[in-house]
Amino acid sequence: MLIILGGLPGVGKTAIARELARQLRAVHLRIDSIEQAIRNSEALSRPLNDAGYRVGYAVALDNISVGRTVIADSVNPLAISRNAWVEVAKRAQVSAIEIEVVCSDAREHQRRVENRTTDIPGLIPPMWQEVVSRDYQPWDRERIVIDTAIRSVKQAVTMLRKILPEP
Question: Model pTM greater than 0.85?
Answer without folding.
Answer: yes
